[in-house]
Specification:
heterotrimer, A mainly alpha (282), B alpha/beta (332), C mainly alpha (313), A: 282 residues, mainly alpha, 12 helices, B: 332 residues, 8-stranded mixed sheet, 4-stranded antiparallel sheet, 13 helices, globular, binds adenosine-5'-triphosphate, binds iron/sulfur cluster, binds magnesium ion
């Protein structure tokens, strides 16, 4: 077999069985979300009152909810919303966070101001800041993405700034500067490439946090509208039936745990591989 | 051997598991220390001196390092001779600090920053001498006096960071000596200190050794120091012992080409220099891994074909040994 | 030492100022007239105009901001028309459950997390480490409201060991309060122990390779003493930091758990304020939560300064 860097990369990454397992789980969930219309046994929104709150069985593998909707189908469709929101949060917070992190790390004059703002935002618990922002912006999927992106951007700024502070002192940056390479190019090519790996690791973690936070917001009624099936809204609307029909709450929660956990494990695996120094400690 | 030595290391081999496979930094080290004797262990950086001493204490970093061969025989106070390699850890702990003590290379970091020096000495004393806290603290105070720290009564309540490097190394010595060990392993106790302090510490160790009759394994780069403190010398190169002999023999008639090279680059002032590394580094070339023949061959001016293929063993005469096929020619 | 604390104090005040700024201006992003929002649907145009004047809402926004800051600095967090009382009073009434919940949760998290982290570090790479690290990872990724629902089902509904929800009658004895807090505190303790496990493990591993640990071993000390007295003593700073941080973030971060368990705490207050768009309460709660966070940070710094011999002298 040809040993391309990509193959070597995955070989090393999956040396730990757990990371491989997590990656497979994640891939299955993502595929589920992408192929939802083809693989889900029922329409997620088709109501069948006579079959309401049926326990897991042959017709509905994971049971039905209070409107007789198939829970498995809703979990499959819920993956679309939950992962979609999580992924959008990752994209936005990575982009904005990387930009500000680079600027703060590279230009001393901006550092103080940016980092004080980061400190201020981190003085508020994630969920509190998120619910405040949603309250201000209005509850919609778009605003949930916006709010969670604002909540997680400071983490990215911290990571990128820390790496930038290190990288900017490296000889090749000095050399580029001496050769007259423009600051913009130094930042966008030389430094960005070198801070990419911690950012990538952070991205998987934020993905996991965002999936958890979205569920929390939906549960509080301050997230996406309750009629959109996400894992969070499923638990929220099902909780009053939990006494008699545990499955309405149990399975969507398991989906959240599985998705968040496998993201974390994959992120951990990435970090171990990209930064061998950290392996021994964290 | 008619009188069994206090410490007798035989064919010690140590391996480390690392990211890039296994390494063997100590490959068959044989040396001995008699009671009341100071043996210097010399060799350039990386030759395996510290690893040898840590193996003796059972303090190899775990789980990466392990003793993979040989014996470390130690004669206990009871007269019984035990192999420290196979001794169960709880038994070994009883010897550590009480019968065998060690002073480390790094005085600045070897003391616990959040405990007072008095507590650190008293802790050991209480454990091994079975006395109460108050008595142990008085013993700590006495020990600080013994290592010539003024105001011992007050200074037992100080923290390490309040002391200079020289003072901390005195504390380390006090700590090591606090339970009257039979064997002291001093791993480059003065390398990190400046010249005048270095001389004081050396004199201190020599005096305590004389007064208390300990055996001392004194590890150093610095041949100048060796002449001052040691009775006998063991020279290491790339994880092996290449020569052993009395100080007089080694200095006047070195048999191994490495030993003579070391002595040749010892300038007259080296005696007063603290930086042993410099002396050793002036031998051209650097340590290479050799599969076959003599480890020193790549850097040896006398290397011949036979050195690269033949089996080079430590020819073990009593009290004088050398690992060289052509040592007779060195002498010539 | 005092200089360092002084600098810290200044930077924490700046953080507080920025939090207040963010809270003020972000609230103004909300669609609609703040006065109309405050009064609710039934308000008449005159009511709204009058309120605008009372609150100075007709002045330029920067003037409003300065006035608002002044009020906050003097401890006045505004008035909630919905609750018909000052915001500070509304928060104070809700503080008790939140305080005890945070206290018990962080205690459980520390009691579970620190020993687990120590075990994991001492036997790193061994099965016990893998199990502990795996469980910590799991705990960090369980949504607390879901775990809460499951606990309610198991321990309250099915087994009947604990009350299902709420905080007991007003004036109920403390033991009854404890019964109400047990489940939510356990849930939050489990979820928050994950970070403490990781930090304890990491900082202990960090110091276990230090030279003085080797010295301690060379004295013949037992491994337990080496780890607990010599290594742990030096690993304490990051561990205490993360425990304090966890406590600080629990004060406003237990929103979801408070809601699940129907605890009338600050989180609960915020959720109902959000659903009613009662902005003075939301703003006030954010300010108070940030202030508690800042104070706990300052307190931790002071404790270090007093406790660490390297800083003290
Ligand atoms: N923890 C470790 N893991 C892997 N290899 C190690 C470890 N400690 C030591 N070694 C290897 O053992 C060799 C010998 O090291 P050692 O510290 O004994 O040298 P030394 O003779 O004491 O040198 P110095 O004079 O610099 O103290 C080194 O080349 C090093 O590569
Ligand atoms: S055996 Fe040969 S190469 Fe080795 S030291 Fe002796 S003369 Fe030099
Ligand atoms: Mg050494």
């Amino acid at each position: 077999m040809v040993q391309t860097p990509a193959i070597l990369f995955f070989r090393r990454m999956f040396r730990r069985k757990l990371v491989l397992a997590a990656f497979i789980v994640l891939a299955v969930i993502v595929l589920m979300a992408l192929l939802a219309p083809w693989i889900s046994p029922y329409e997620p929104t088709s109501i069948k009152i006579i079959r309401r709150l049926k326990p897991p069985g042959e017709l509905n593998w994971l049971g039905t909810d209070e409107f007789g909707r198939d829970i498995l189908s809703r979990i499959i469709y819920g993956a679309r919303a939950s992962l979609g929101i999580g992924f959008a949060v990752v994209l936005v917070s990575m982009t904005v966070g990387t930009l500000f992190g680079l600027l703060a790390g590279y230009f001393r004059s901006l550092d103080g101001l940016v980092m004080r703002f980061v400190d201020a935002m981190m003085a508020l618990p994630d969920i509190l800041l998120a619910i405040f922002l949603v309250a201000v912006l209005g509850a919609s999927a778009f605003n949930v993405v916006l709010a969670l992106s604002i909540v997680y951007t400071p983490r990215v700024i911290r990571v990128v700034r820390a790496s930038t502070l290190v990288v900017r002192e490296l000889p090749f940056v000095e050399a580029a500067r001496a050769l007259g390479v423009s600051t913009r190019r130094i930042l966008s090519v030389h430094i960005l490439l070198n801070v990419a790996s911690p950012v990538l690791v952070q991205a998987t973690f934020i993905f996991a946090y965002a999936v958890l936070a979205e569920a929390g917001l939906s549960f509080l009624g301050a997230g996406v509208p309750p009629e959109v099936p996400t894992w969070g809204t499923m638990i929220a609307s099902g909780q009053q039936y939990a006494d008699s029909s545990f499955w309405v709450v149990l399975f969507p929660g398991l989906a959240i745990v599985l998705a968040a956990l496998s993201l974390q494990v994959v992120g951990d695996g990435l970090r171990d591989m990209l930064d061998p120094k950290l392996r021994k400690t964290l | 051997m008619d009188t069994p030595h206090l410490l007798s290391i035989k064919g010690l081999e140590v391996r480390f598991r690392t990211e890039d496979g296994e390494v063997t930094p100590v490959r068959g080290v044989t040396l001995s220390v008699a009671a009341g004797e100071t043996v210097a262990l010399v060799g350039e950086s990386g030759s395996g001196k510290s690893v040898t001493s840590l193996a003796t204490m059972g303090l190899l970093p775990r789980p990466a390092g392990r003793v993979s061969g040989g014996q470390i025989l130690f004669r206990r106070r009871s007269g019984e001779v035990t192999d420290l390699v196979t001794l169960p850890l709880p038994e070994l702990r009883k010897l550590r600090g009480s019968e065998i003590a060690m002073i480390f290379q790094e005085p600045m970091t070897s003391l616990n920053p959040v405990l007072t020096v008095g507590e650190q000495i008293a802790e050991s004393v209480r454990l091994h001498m079975g006395i109460g806290h108050g008595a142990a603290l008085r013993r700590a105070e006495e020990m600080l006096g013994l290592v010539e720290i003024p105001n011992a009564r007050d200074r037992i309540h100080e923290y390490p960071h309040q002391m200079s490097g020289g003072m901390r190394q005195r504390v380390m010595i006090a700590l090591a000596m606090s339970c009257n060990p039979a064997l002291l392993i001093a791993d480059e106790p003065t390398t990190a200190l400046d010249v005048t302090i270095q001389a004081q510490i050396l004199a201190l160790i020599a005096r305590l050794q004389r007064d208390l009759g300990m055996g001392v394994l004194f590890i150093t780069h610095n041949l100048g120091v060796v002449a001052e403190v040691a009775d006998r010398v063991t020279v290491m190169y790339a994880g092996q012992v290449v020569e052993t002999g009395s100080v007089k023999d080694i200095f006047q008639a070195p048999r191994h080409p490495y030993t003579s090279a070391l002595l040749n680059c010892l300038p007259a002032r080296a005696r007063h220099r603290e930086d042993g590394r410099r002396v050793v580094q002036s031998i051209p070339g650097s340590v290479e891994f050799v599969k076959e023949g003599c480890s020193f061959a790549p850097r040896c001016t006398l290397a011949a074909d036979i050195c690269r293929t033949g089996a080079v063993t430590l020819d073990d005469e009593t009290e004088r040994s050398v690992r060289c096929l052509r040592w007779r020619e060195v002498l010539a | 030492m005092w200089l360092k604390l002084g600098q810290r104090l200044v930077s924490l005040m700046i953080v507080m100022f920025l939090v207040a700024t963010m809270v003020f201006f972000l609230t103004r992003l909300a669609p609609g007239d703040p006065a109309a929002l405050m009064l609710g649907d039934q308000a008449t145009a005159e009511d709204i105009a009058q309120l605008r004047q009372v609150y100075g809402l007709d002045k330029p926004i920067l003037v409003q901001f300065v006035l608002w800051l002044k009020e906050i600095a003097s401890g006045n967090l505004g008035h909630s028309i919905f609750l018909q009382r000052p915001v500070i009073q509304a928060i104070a009434e809700r503080a008790e459950p939140t305080f005890f919940l945070a206290l018990f949760s962080v205690t459980i998290a520390a009691l579970v997390g620190i020993p687990a982290g120590i075990v994991s570090a001492v036997w790193r790479g061994r099965p016990v480490d893998q199990i502990v690290s795996g469980l910590a990872m799991l705990a960090a990724n369980i949504p607390s409201f879901w775990l809460g629902l499951i606990f309610i089902q198991l321990f309250a509904v099915r087994l009947g060991w604990f009350p299902v929800a709420g905080y007991g009658e007003p004036g109920a004895p403390f033991v009854e309060r404890l019964a109400h807090l047990a489940l939510p505190a356990t849930v939050l303790g489990i979820v928050n122990s994950a970070l403490i496990v990781r930090f304890t493990r990491a900082s202990l591993l960090d110091v276990l390779s230090d030279d003085y640990v080797r010295t301690a071993r060379s004295k013949g000390l037992s491994e337990a003493r080496v780890v607990l007295r010599h290594a742990f003593g030096n690993a304490l700073v990051p561990i205490v930091t993360v425990v304090a941080l966890t406590a600080a973030l629990l004060v406003g971060g237990a929103i979801v758990t408070e809601t699940v368990f129907g605890l009338p705490g600050i989180g609960n207050l915020v959720v109902s304020a959000v659903l009613r768009r009662d902005y003075p309460v939301i703003q006030g709660a954010l300010i108070v939560v940030a202030a508690v966070y800042v104070l706990i940070n300052l307190l931790t710094d002071i404790i270090y300064t007093l406790a660490d011999p390297r800083v003290r002298y």
